[in-house]
Amino acid sequence: MPDGGVAPDVLMHAERISKSFGTVPVLFSVSFDIRPGEVHALIGENGAGKSTLMKILSGYHQPSSGQILFDGAPVTLPPDGLAEDLGIVLIHQELNLAEMMTVEENIFLGREIRRRGFLDRAAMRADVAALLDRLHLDIRPQDRISDLSIAQKQMVEIAKAISRNARILIMDEPTAVLTSAETETFFRQIERLKAEGVAIIFVSHKLGEVKALADRVTIMRDGQWIATQDAAELTPDAMAQLMVGRELSDLYPPMREPDVDAPVMLDVAGLSSPAGVRDVSFQLRRGEILGFAGLVGSGRTALFEAICGLAPTSAGTVTLDGAPARFHDVAEARDAGIVYLTKDRKEKGLLLDLEMTPNLTLLALDRFVRRGLLDRAAEKAGMERAARRFDIRARDPKVRARDLSGGNQQKLLLAKVMESDPQVVIIDEPTRGIDVGTKQQIYHFIAALAAEGKSIVLISSEMPEVIGMCHRVVVMREGHVTGLLEGAAIEENEIMLHASGLKGRTTHD
Amino acid sequence: MTDQTTSARPASGGFSIDFKAWGPLLALAALCIFGFILNPAFASEGNISNILTRSAFIGVIAVGATFVITAGGIDLSVGSMAAFISGVMIMVMNGLVETMGVSVATILVGVGLSVFLGAMAGLANGLLTTRGKIEAFIVTLGTMGIYRSLVTYLADGGTLSLNFDLRSLYRPVYYGEVLFVPVPVLVLAIVAILGWVLLNRTAFGRHCVAIGSSESVARYSAVKINRVKTLTYVIQGLCVSLATIIYVPRLGSASSQTGVMWELEAIAAVIIGGTVLKGGYGRIGGTVVGAIMLTTIGNILNLTDLISNYLNGAVQGVIIIVAVWLQRGQWKRRGRSGDGG
To answer: What is the protein's membrane topology class (chain A) (predicted)?
Structure first.
């Protein structure tokens, strides 16, 4: 769309939107428009800026520069979901419903119909029943949200949006958690909304779906607008090409030649877990960096949580350094020499209210005990050593983990798992939300660990990272391994094709 | 995540008091000065010794509660548990007088039984919350009712009294002194020191803090959550048993009114002392100061006509709220809501 003239049928037009968080820019002059009755897909790799753009379009973030035209007039969207009053509704990926309340109560939450100060339940129930009927949903107003399936919950969110006269519906990966049958129902719903003139913006990593559902597609990369094209003109392959096409710089350390004769450290055969892992097999050699690529929710985290005793297994065997390994908790896994570094620094990684030292030593606390008591001097020395080795910078050693920058938190977390002196290290999304300088440092730390003889699993949704760092790459989709890539096959198109189910083994169940 | 870091520390240079650490002690000092002004008899050696001795029950129980609360739990059953253990101890010791006579051995059996019952009661609370996956509040609310009703049943609605001769023999455990220090004060001091070492200088204590701070982080960091949490309730049970052992010789009886409200006083002492109710931060020293403060308030009201003694609970309530408000530093950070970034 050319700058300047806004076509008359444009409902909302975002013009040269830029956004920085603190000093970190995440969006660079992105323009985007949406028409009534249009389905507009937003695609790009993780970190491309899609979520930020969606949040700006729905008022949750304010742009640092640029403006938004709504119905042809410049607007400043109100924050915290108040843009819903204008008819702009964002449906978050983690749905936003009160689980213990009924469908009817949720749909009217915050704007209940009252009569003489009391709730008019009959009127609300009738309204909701009519709405659910109109949307052809097989849900009753009095159903409790916690009793519904995820797909039904999503439909309730959509019904809620419609009941608020949504004109623009923005959805973050709406089909990521749906089965294929549910996805079909979802598609029909979208078609219906479209026919009513609702504009729909959605993010998806499933390029086949994008092709099938969208009228237009906008591709983003590294916070920049790359292209907006009619979906009819684009093949999924072409989309993948546009999403990735980028040169790799020396962000990554030089790749050390893998030693094909190195002993197998971790051998997983036919592993399944009710947490969402089905029949996964792979081998990891000493000194190797094995990448795990795939979309968010493809079962990579669940796989390694199952291996490390954090999730149950239902079938298969794990062999660690020649010995059978079935761990019931993290302590057993740690003692056997395998540790998992979580992608969720704040919820699962660090004790945010504590200082750095107790965080550093927590996983390997037994090593800091002498005659039953904690050896505080040893802890302090350990902290100094770790700060040097991993370049953890804090203004004050007594600073709480919460007040460290994301990069320093990640380095502290890496230092923490290394305190237990593991042989196999599983690193999940090591550079999520981290600036490029720290990223580079972390890549070098990981490469150095591999060179020391540690075996590394690198789970990442950022493809350049997987390509730049890994000797071999396993691609997963829906809990399965869809491909094992080596050598020249480790490139973005190939990974994307496997990850999105266009290539390799897939199932339809 | 950005590099925007929000520092919660007061930036004021020079003289500033760390209220979190010293607040409870300062408040106690202020309370003592206040008591002395109202009635100089407050500062007499006898009165101070009296306050400390009376603080010992709640103090010992509260040290245990510090572990439970630091690890993110709560135990409401301690008062009833104390009453129940007292009742069983008295009945068993009375029964043994016939076979074992009025002897130290009889008392030792009673003491051993108390320790066993305390540990078992704590274990039950712990296992029900961890293995049973029931909220600690509910589990201990339930056991609170059970123990209270059991002691009422054992006493047949009345009072269980310890054999008179046995009581005379047992008496020094509450009324005696070692090197001029009353035995209960000595017990409180020892329990506090052991508690402090356990919480601040051992892996177990660090694990309690980690669990209270974030159970999921603790789980991912190889902390055996169920075991540690259960142990905190066992420690609590042992502390209750210890408090009971020094309580029984004081009155020589147990009834349905024994230990009423002790659980709330113990929790209040813990919170006044600076431990965070939702867990993750515990202070044994603060807890002991908190327990002494609560007793001091009652004592001051006894020594003055200024406020009716019947208002003891009200004054305690006000002081608890003010103490916690001061600690949280809300008065310093007014108007600063939310964090940037």
So the answer is: Peripheral membrane protein
Buried b (16+ CB within 10 A) or exposed e, B186-206: bbbeebbeebbebbbbbbbbb
Alpha-carbon span B205 to B282, nearest angstrom:
9
Cβ contact (<8 Å) for B3 and A405? yes
Residue with tokens 């985290």: A301
Q: How far is CA A61 from CA A83, A225, B32, in A?
A: 11, 18, 54
Contact A354, A401 (CB under 8 A): yes
pLDDT of amino acid A435? 67
How many other β-carbons are positioned within 10 Å of the β-carbon of residue B8? 12
pLDDT band at B330 (very low <50, low <70, confident <90, very high): low
Give yes or no for residue B6 having a pLDDT over 50: no
Q: Where are the alpha helices (DSSP H) in B155-275?
A: 164-170, 172-175, 183-201, 203-213, 215-220, 225-251, 262-272
CA distance A414 to A174: 33
Domain positions in chain B: 55-293
Q: Each residue of B219-258: pLDDT tens digit?
A: 999 999 999 999 999 999 999 999 999 999 998 999 999 9
Q: Which residues of B touch A365 (CB under 8 A)?
A: 203, 206-207
Name the β-bridge partners of B161.
Answer: B253
Minimal CA separation from B207 to chain A, in Å: 8
Which residues does chain B have within 8 Å of residue A433's beta carbon, measured at their own beta carbons?
A: 1
Q: Give the nearest partner residue to B220 out of A330, A405, A420, using CB atoms.
A: A330
Question: How would you classify residue A22: left for phi > 0, otherwise alpha for psi between -120 and 50, otherwise beta?
Answer: left
Chain B residues with CB-CB distance to A24 below 8 A: 2-3
Instruction: Kindly state the tokens that stand for A507.
Output: 């199932």
Looking at beta carbons, which residues of chain A come within 8 Å of B219?
Answer: 310, 329-330, 348
pLDDT recorded at residue A259: 79
B293-319 pLDDT, tens digit per residue, is 999 988 888 888 777 878 888 888 888
What's the per-residue H, E or C state across A404-427? CCHHHHHHHHHHHHHCCCCCEEEE
CATH no., domain A12-244: 3.40.50.300
To the nearest whole angstrom, how far is the Cα of A31 from the nearest Cα of chain B? 24
Query: Which residues are within 8 A (CB) of B156 and not within 5 positions of it... i.e. 6 or more apart?
Result: none
**Residues ≥6 apart with Cβ < 8 Å to A111:** none
Q: Which residues, 6+ apart, have CB-to-CB distance to B179 below 8 Å?
A: none
Strand pairing report for A39-43 and A216-221: parallel
- The dihedral over CA atoms of B148, B149, B154, B158, expressed in degrees to the nearest 10, equals 80
The secondary element (H helix, E strand) that includes residue A118 is strand A118-119
- Nearest Cα neighbor of B273 from B32, B137, B80, B69 is B69
B141-188 pLDDT, tens digit per residue, is 999 999 999 999 999 989 999 999 999 899 888 888 888 899 999 999
- Could you count the other beta carbons within 10 Å of the beta carbon of residue A194? 18
Contacts with B221 from chain A: Cβ below 8 Å: 330, 362-363, 416
CATH superfamily of A248-337+423-509: P-loop containing nucleotide triphosphate hydrolases (3.40.50.300)
Read off the amino acid at residue B65: A
For chain A, the residues whose C-beta falls within 8 A of a C-beta of chain B are 21-24, 310, 329-331, 333-334, 340, 342, 347-354, 358, 362-363, 365-366, 368-369, 372-374, 376, 400, 403-407, 409, 416, 420, 433-435
Domain spans, chain A: 12-244, 248-337+423-509, 350-421
Candidates B3, B20, B204, B328: best to mutate against A (most CBs of A within 10 A) is B3
Residues in chain A where the model's pLDDT stays below 70:
1-8, 23, 46-47, 245-250, 433, 435-437, 505-509
